[in-house]
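Thread amino acids onto this structure.
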């Protein structure tokens, strides 16, 4: 009987130790994720939605809806709250709440404003007329044209303004950390979804490489979306330095 009791006690202690270890690992992982996204538990964030440039109505493209689902899952995992706002209705500053801004400057006024202030080294062709340079990116003297369905590009950035020419401090006036803005700027809606999925899949690697509070701007390439959709994404380059530098005149 004594051996049976001792065995049960040992099993209970082992189970409790295992549970505490798993809980500790899970809490550390959650804390790192919250720090990277600037989303402490019960905090709020903005999801700024673009409009579908293919229509004059206040509509959101199908792939952009999928991108929003990817982002909302990240917010939910952090235990935070989200507010979905149309791009032309988000008339407020940045830094107080984490912000996910979806779409390029041609479909999202908020993205255009953020890029002008925080990523002045990036130029995006927003011509409405079809042409080989429509939607093309220019970063650091390099040009990246879209070949629809074959090779397309997206910019994924985490910016606070600390590394921009008119950079803000790392803290607000009340001593709180400046919350980041995540810019998801694709050449079309499918590449927006691809960049949002890349952020979700590679958040741990991005946090390790750039730090939990570091700014970055990555150029991504979506390969053969006609066959693979938003799933095959390659990192072309880290263009943080070029994107945050003032353009030469």
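Threaded sequence (249 positions):
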């Amino acid at each position: 009987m004594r051996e049976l009791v001792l065995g049960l006690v040992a099993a209970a202690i082992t189970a409790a130790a295992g549970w505490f270890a798993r809980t500790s690992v899970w809490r550390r992982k959650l804390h790192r994720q919250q720090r990277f996204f600037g989303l402490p538990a019960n905090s709020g964030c903005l999801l700024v939605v673009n409009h579908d440039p293919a229509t004059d109505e206040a509509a959101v493209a199908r792939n952009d809806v999928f991108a929003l689902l990817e982002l909302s899952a990240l917010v939910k995992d952090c235990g935070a709250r989200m507010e979905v706002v149309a791009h032309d209705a988000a008339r407020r500053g940045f830094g107080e709440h984490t912000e996910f801004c979806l779409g390029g400057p041609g479909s999202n006024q908020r993205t255009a404003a953020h890029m002008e202030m925080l990523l002045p080294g990036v130029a995006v062709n927003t011509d409405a007329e079809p042409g080989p340079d429509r939607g093309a990116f220019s970063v650091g003297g390099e040009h990246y044209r879209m070949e629809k369905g074959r090779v397309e590009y997206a910019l994924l950035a985490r910016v606070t303004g600390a590394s921009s020419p008119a950079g803000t401090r790392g803290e607000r006036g009340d001593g709180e950390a400046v919350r980041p803005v995540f810019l998801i700027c694709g050449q079309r809606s499918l590449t927006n979804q691809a960049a949002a999925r890349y952020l979700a899949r590679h958040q741990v690697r991005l946090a390790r490489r750039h730090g939990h509070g570091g700014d970055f701007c990555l150029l991504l390439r979506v390969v053969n979306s006609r066959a693979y959709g938003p799933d095959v994404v390659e990192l072309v380059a880290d263009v943080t330095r070029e994107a945050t530098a003032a353009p030469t005149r």
